[in-house]
Amino acid sequence: MNAPHITVRTYAVVYVLLLTLTGLTTGVAFIDLGGSLNTVAALVIAVLKALLVVLYFMHLRYSDRFTWVIAAAGVFWLLILIGGTLDDLVTRNILPGELHLTP
Amino acid sequence: MNSSVPAAPEAIDIRAHQFEDVEQQHHASWLGMWVFLATEVMFFGGMFTGYAFYRVGYPDAFAAGSNRLDIVLGAINTAVLISSSLTMALAVYSAEKGRSNATVRCLILTMLLGAVFLCIKFYEYYQKFVEYLVPGAAFRFEEPLRGSAQIFFSFYFAMTGLHALHMIIGLGLLSVIAVKARRGGFSAAYYTPVELSGLYWHFVDIVWIFLFPLLYLVGRHLHP
Asked: CA-to-CA distance for B124 and B216, rounded, in angstroms?
């Protein structure tokens, strides 16, 4: 969509934020947060970065509702795909070998 | 600008006959690109699902395999790709202001950064061959994780390979757009191809934003 209200300054701020979050996720990865918290932290930071790219670089923030629906639908079906597959794995032991499930 | 440049796009009827007006035509292209990107989410989604499945099943092998990747090169490549997204955003920005020369410069910069990313990526692939980390008969890894670590590296090559393929397609796309921009094919009134190529490039960037932590950072806190 046309987004004449986005300035070079906005792009620069988003860029610096993206680099900062990249540094943060790399640094945090070396600290043992315990359990699966490392994965959670990595995914939260990745989602934040993706949101910055989608909202500002891809202009979604300035787009109409229809575009929002399409973008949300992509994420929604992806979550069904991953969630539906993983719930099968964690409720039935279907992998051979050294499988052990972390809580 | 030389004199052989074709008529300014404003003078050409850029509207296809099935559309009411140029704005509706632009909206249709815009939505079409987003629908395509939603199908791309599903395309990559299959691999992310497979990754999640085996990661839950073989956490030790995924952590140990992840630690054999070069985290410095991975982090540098993330920064390179984010920088290329910035220059791509600036290319679209210049295009919407009708500044063709700036658009071309930004597109070339974006392609250069994309090429740097691919060079680093292929150097990493080379390293993996040297270290016997390519799945197959020659794969070497400490037991008892040898079998399941091959699964990790299969995902590593498949996911980064599919991503690299998208980068190569993106480079082809951008070079076509850059040539067209250089020939004065776009204006503030019509720059849809620049905008939609930008959407594609940013999408590929987002895929890497998820690949980097999932492949490179998984096990750092366990075996620093």
From this structure: 12
B72 touches chain A (CB under 8 A): no
* Look-up of token digits 């990313």: B117
Rounded to two decimals, the pTM is: 0.91
As given in the structure block, the two tokens for residue A17 are 């934020």
**Count of alpha carbons within 13 Å of B138, Cβ hemisphere only?**
7
Torsion of CA B2, B3, B4, B10, to 10 degrees: 100
To which residue do tokens 């290329």 refer? B84
**CATH numbers and ranges of domains, chain B:** 39-216 (1.20.120.80)
AA letter at B56: V
Express each pLDDT in A61-79 by its tens digit. Answer: 999 999 999 999 999 999 9
Question: How far is residue A16's CA from residue B105's CA, in Å, rounded to a whole number?
Answer: 21
CB pair distance less than 8 Å for B53 and A85: yes
Could A57 and B202 be called an inter-chain contact, meaning their C-beta atoms sit closer than 8 Å? yes
Host H or E run for residue A84:
helix A65-91
The answer to whether the beta carbons of residues B9 and B193 sit under 8 Å apart is no
CB B62 within 8 A of CB A100: no
Residue B66 and residue B219 in contact, taking contact as beta carbons nearer than 8 Å: yes
Among the partner residues B52, B86, B198, nearest to A82 by beta-carbon distance: B52
d(CA A54, CA A60): 6
pLDDT of residue B37: 97
Q: What number of CA atoms fall less than 13 Å from residue A86's CA on the CB side?
A: 17
Residues B221, A32: C-beta atoms closer than 8 Å:
yes
Our measurement of the distance from residue B184's CA atom to the centroid of its chain's CA atoms, rounded to an integer in Å, reads 26
Whether residue B15 contacts residue B22, with contact meaning beta carbons closer than 8 Å, is answered with: yes
Whether A62 contacts A5, CB under 8 Å: yes
Calculate how close chain A gets to B132, using CA atoms only, in Å: 23
- Tell me the pLDDT tens digit for each residue of B113-146: 999 999 999 999 999 999 999 998 888 988 888 8
